[in-house]
């Protein structure tokens, strides 16, 4: 093992033990995300997960992206500000550890003044896209709990915007009165696309269409999977309406897990836009690897 | 005590012991709403709360409105369908009770086919408004967890629409990432009105403005009370955009608790519309009393 790549987010921590050719030898996943631990837990958590793998005789570099660098995380890695290249390892914050078996660096997130916005973690996936597709010029959509739309040009992040679409969907599905009317695993593509189109054309109607899911389930036997797909479509639709300046007439790359990326791809496809899809985890790893290479080159 | 008026909702139960002149002698409030109890609990809950007050020698009529009449409630009181007058006591469902000390009737809710919608409890407040303002012709707005906009004409409920504004606000304030950035009791009227105007003019921007509350709190020290007022304004604003056909150029009466009714009144006022405000509890009681009188007249 040459070094360790780490994506330390709010809910999860993923580690990859990287060989000296830049390939992952092993992948470790844990639920010890920022929300589950306090500051003092970071080092023991990391050492505990790497226990079997750390050599006795040398210090292993660990390069971290994500919420571990936030004020509530391990050590704050102050934001870089757009327009900027995705922060590389020389912008990373060195963490003082008690153990000398690891040398930890946390990559900074990115902020934007107007409209005020922040990201932590996605900048590393964007670096991964630029690695995978050198010279990419266009828009990167990163759907998730807090979906990001990012304008990238000449290797720089120019501007971006965050939409709470995934979190809203989860809250409505699990905590609202709609939870009685939603469920299942099957995606009703048609219901999704009709709802996207409706919300894109008339964003305000989303406000009334939400409770209609409950009413139609009570009075007309609307199925839970159709209702759920329609809810997803309404929320993605109003997001697409708000993010229209980002995607309209642009080259769009979606970075996300398969099902979610497919949904966004279908929604954009219905608007006549053919987006490409890149895997979220692959882009994180590519971004961390690029930052690592830069660090090694700078050190030599 | 002549009879008992009851508003049995999802979260709360309120009882009023009414004298034979139609005035409340005593008011009892309990948290034993539909969500807290099962079917078998309704009768013991009611008898327990009325224990001190029920006479030994006769049966006391109890007239109930609200979610107790839903399928998951005490006994289902099937919906009346618009257009219709607010259901009176002769449309109420008689509940079989073990005890002969109470004679319970539950008022039905109202449904609408297109757009599909339902209400339970608000129809009684609407009956109250028609009692308080005979001949009222216009629109009644009932803000709350599930805000209703209702078109009333010639004594009938013509159409209505439900918006989950209150529930969305509570979910975002208490359960989302925004909870770290919101709080306090003071209403920032200016921040509220600016947000209403923005969401009314450009409903889709709400999708991006939500996370901006978090980002501005992190980067610019946006205060929790201003952030909370702005969130409220964004959600009320998109509701007003969707409900525009209801209020534009109409006579509007708001039925709600003071603070919430004031917020809606201010939002509509900024659009040049002067709405009147009626107390929510007073309208519930007026509606139950009207239904009760009708029942007595019919019985004679």
Q: Please give the CATH architecture of the largest domain in chain A.
A: 2-Layer Sandwich
Radius of gyration of chain A: 21 Å
Give the name of the CATH superfamily of the largest domain in chain A: 2-keto-3-deoxy-galactonokinase, C-terminal domain
The CATH topology of the largest domain in chain A turns out to be Nucleotidyltransferase, domain 5
Q: Strand content of the residues of chain A, in percent? A: 15-25%
Total E-strand runs of chain A: 14
Please bin the fraction of helical residues of chain A: 25-40%
CATH class of the largest domain in chain A: Alpha Beta
What assembly state would you assign to the polypeptide chains in this entry? homodimer
Number of helices of chain A: 9
Biggest interface pair, residues each? A-B, 44 and 44 residues
How would you state the average pLDDT of chain A, rounded? 96
Number of domains of chain A: 2
> What's the helix-strand series of chain A?
EEEHEEEEEEHEEEHHHHHEHEH
SSE class of chain A: alpha/beta
Protein name (chains A, B): 2-keto-3-deoxy-galactonokinase
Keywords (chains A, B): Kinase, Transferase
GO molecular function, one term (chains A, B): 2-dehydro-3-deoxygalactonokinase activity
InterPro entries (chains A, B): DGOK, DGOK_C, DGOK_N
